[in-house]
Amino acid sequence: MASAIALPRRRPAPRESGFAAHRVGVDLLLASYRAIPDSATVRLAKKTSNLFRARAARTAPGLDVSGLTGVISVNPLDKTADVAGMCTYEDLVDATLPYGLAPLVVPQLKTITLGGAVTGLGIESTSFRSGLPHESVLEIDVLTGSGDIVTATPDGPDADLYWGFPNSYGTLGYATRLKIQLEPVLPYVALRHIRFHDLDSMQHSMDEIVRDRSYDGIEVQYLDGVVFSDDESYLTLGVQTAEPGPVSDYHSGSDIFYRSIQQKSTDRLSIHDYLWRWDTDWFWCSRAFGTQNPKIRRFWPKKYRRSSFYWKLIALDRKYDIADRLEARKGNPPRERVVQDVEVPIENTASFLRWFLSEVPIEPLWLCPLRLREPAPAGADAARPWPLYPLEPKKTYVNIGFWSSVPIVAGEPEGATNRAIEHKVTEFDGHKSLYSDAYYTESEFAALYGGEKFHELKKRYDPQSRLLDMYSKAVQGK
To answer: For residue range 282-326, what is the model confidence (pLDDT) as tens digits?
Structure first.
């Protein structure tokens, strides 16, 4: 255990200087847009990504977003921040914590960008009380497919773009600036890990915690869970505290956060380390690289204990087909990548988990409950406010994340396991995120992800189809 030091508060940078630099970045972006031939599809000139689905190679210059990577301004008085679209949450958190503030939802991986979390969705342990990242956006500047910069707000002239932008994955445009809400945070987070021996009891307790926002009389501000098997699951409950004292260190030491859940019933982290508790070992996926082996971990450089470095290893594997070559040497078949996050209504969570654990040889699984924020901003559709990812208001869902691979069975169609998961999620009235492989038919996809509403938005904001459409991008990998 090591003592944590609260980050010092500092004065904000001059507001105008941040916006002046941002305007230069926007000018670079617009110049790069105009340089793309009219016959070419407009894409980002971005080398890194948190997407797991295949992407077609670029055949034309991309959009220059190099000037859109920073925090423009933090306003501690009204608890807001103006942020460039390609700013990472790591940089945003570094800018807001000195003021004792944080975004309402901070996705788990440091290199996720603000624009990416809005156009591609994001989630974390505050989502049961604060919804998804796009719900704390007050206004957003978007470079549309037609080459215009549009400022979208909940009830302004481009409100339809504001509501339709989440889950559009760059098919309507790209965020250049987002104004978001922040919330006060304390220096530490105290955790309780609650063990359950059956999935139904875990589901029931999670539902009660979401409803009451407390457990055993203690407030719950953060809530997620891990399933190791059908008779071993945990809910992790967190509450902020200013009380000084020792904290755990899962970044620079030998301990691994997800294993600590099985080993201790309580814990304490600094707020900074809590927000990035999953990034150090990419949840548990770093075990694929041997990082969790104590003999290797001792010598693994601390600066490379982060998801962005593991991404580079994944890229090498894809380029040289390393994993399948190793499997072939052992006489094993190649493997199907099963990297997905799905949402099912909370009442169907235990049933889905039982099906998954019996049919798919992957564990652990991550759980994260979520509800759309209440009340929704003015102008929201009361039934389905966010049409391209139509979760229902006043309804609790549970995000279930699983990230691994399974052996390919000879004779089965491509993506057999992913297809089975898609069908089961739909059967349980759920949705899945589109950052990874998808196999829906066009009619299935339209029913789940906006359908005619997407086409209406496309006609207005990308009339010449300079950007890909949703199905081409998310399913066909164009």
So the answer is: 999 999 899 999 999 999 999 999 999 988 888 787 777 777 777
Domains of the chain in start order, with CATH, are 15-184 (3.30.465.10)
Structure tokens at 471: 């199905």
Closest CA to 367 of 347, 339, 337, 397: 397
Q: How many CA atoms does the CB half-sphere of 28 hold within 13 Å?
A: 17
| One-letter identity of residue 102 | A
In the block, residue with structure tokens 């081409």 = 472
Most confident of 37-51, 196-210, 312-326: 196-210
Q: What span, in angstroms and rounded, lies between the C-alpha atoms of 261 and 225? A: 9
Q: Are strands 232-241 and 214-215 parallel, antiparallel or unpaired?
A: unpaired
Alpha carbons 303 and 162: distance in angstroms, whole number: 38
Per DSSP, the three-state class of 199 is helix
Name residue 270's beta-bridge partners. Answer: 188
Polymer length of the chain? 478
Number of Cβ within 10 Å of residue 55's Cβ equals 11
Strands 80-84 and 173-184: antiparallel
- Helix (H) or strand (E) holding 274, with range, is helix 271-275
Q: Is the whole-model pTM more than 0.85?
A: yes
Q: Average pLDDT, stretch 262-270?
A: 98
Helix axes 416-427, 349-359, angle to 10 degrees: 160
145 SS3 class:
coil
Q: What are phi and psi of 383, to 5 degrees?
A: -90, -45
Q: Nearest to residue 220, comparing CAs of 129, 106, 108? A: 129
pLDDT attached to residue 187: 98
Mean pLDDT over each residue of the chain, to the nearest integer: 92
23 pLDDT above the threshold of 50: yes
